[in-house]
């Protein structure tokens, strides 16, 4: 971590003072040396290292098969892929497929007693669905999550155990003896989709603590994802209502400080930030058919701009942050 700490007096410092600025030369650079750690084969931290929620990069997780998978094996691998994909969210997820090949990174391997990649040919046969973490045969810094089974039915049971969270992950391997069936799913109740059967609060849409807060002389934008079902029929909808309550530090003087609202990088509306204490509540309607309109309380966007994955953005712009 690199942090600049600057002061020019003991009390009453102006954070906007140029005295606190640090000039970095254009020709300067920062050399970093990385050392990969050889972690222990322990499933208690699952899904790490196969997915790390602290990593904001697209997650690439190869899936390894002995050969072309049949229908049962395709179903098992699809369940596991869906589970990892639901956690990747906005990062994105890639699942390269390898047949009887060693991956060059952390990966998931599907194997039965009769059909397994050559690099697992000496692994003991299993008597039940098993999930095990092992070292890469040629690189101890790379881990493989192996889904073992006597047959495709066992692989499907192990995959369901991962997806449903009925497994207590501990140690190098776990046996999936039983998977409790889930209640039948309702239409449009996918966990990463915005609920369509009731109003949804912004608190339900946040993915980390303090996502709906921002601070500083130039507050960072507040972003909220709106993931809608891709086949949601909106042609007869009059719009999407947003009831917004917000708080902010009042500007020291009356100026053009404002809050800008955008959707998918398209400007929607701007609201002044008053220098007097007022109730701050907005009711916005986002029609899905009309084009952009000017107005104080109604905000419209073109239908094509509202997709399955949407990004709602709030920018607080202070013209004179210091008195």
Automatic annotation (TrEMBL):
Pathway: Glycan metabolism; bacterial cellulose biosynthesis. InterPro entries: Cell_synth_B, Cell_synthase_bac. The keyword Oxidoreductase does not apply. It comes from the Bacteria. Pfam families: BcsB. It is found in: Cell inner membrane. Binds the cellulose synthase activator, bis-(3'-5') cyclic diguanylic acid (c-di-GMP). Belongs to the AcsB/BcsB family. This is Cyclic di-GMP-binding protein. The lineage of its organism: Bacteria, Pseudomonadati, Pseudomonadota, Gammaproteobacteria, Enterobacterales.
């Amino acid at each position: 971590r690199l942090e600049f700490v600057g002061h020019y007096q003991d009390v009453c410092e102006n954070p906007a003072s140029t005295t606190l600025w640090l000039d970095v030369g254009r020709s300067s650079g920062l050399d970093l040396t990385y050392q990969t750690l050889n972690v222990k084969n322990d499933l208690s931290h699952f899904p790490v290292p196969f997915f790390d929620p602290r990593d904001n990069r697209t997650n690439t997780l190869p899936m390894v098969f002995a050969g072309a998978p049949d229908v049962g094996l395709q179903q098992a691998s699809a369940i596991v892929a869906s589970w990892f994909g639901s956690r990747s969210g906005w990062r994105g997820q890639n699942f390269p497929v390898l047949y009887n090949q060693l991956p060059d990174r952390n990966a998931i391997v599907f194997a039965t007693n009769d059909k397994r990649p050559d690099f697992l040919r000496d692994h003991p046969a299993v008597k039940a669905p098993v999930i095990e973490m092992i070292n890469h045969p040629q690189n101890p810094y790379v881990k493989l999550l192996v889904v073992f089974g006597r047959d495709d039915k066992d692989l499907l049971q192990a995959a369901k155990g991962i997806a449903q969270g009925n497994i207590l992950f501990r140690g190098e391997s776990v046996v999936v003896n039983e998977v409790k069936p889930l209640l039948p799913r309702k239409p449009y109740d996918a966990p990463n989709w915005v609920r369509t059967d009731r109003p949804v609060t912004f608190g339900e849409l946040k993915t980390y603590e303090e996502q709906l807060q921002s601070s500083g002389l130039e507050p960072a934008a507040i972003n909220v994802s709106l993931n809608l079902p891709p086949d949601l029929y909106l042609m007869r909808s009059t719009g999407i209502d947003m009831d917004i309550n917000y708080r902010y530090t009042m500007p020291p003087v009356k100026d053009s400080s404002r809050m800008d609202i955008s959707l998918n990088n398209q400007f929607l509306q701007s609201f002044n930030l008053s220098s007097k204490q007022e109730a701050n509540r907005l009711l916005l309607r986002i029609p899905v058919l009309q084009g952009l309109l000017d107005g104080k309380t109604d905000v419209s966007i073109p239908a094509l701009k509202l997709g399955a994955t949407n990004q709602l953005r709030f920018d607080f712009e202070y013209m004179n942050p210091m008195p």
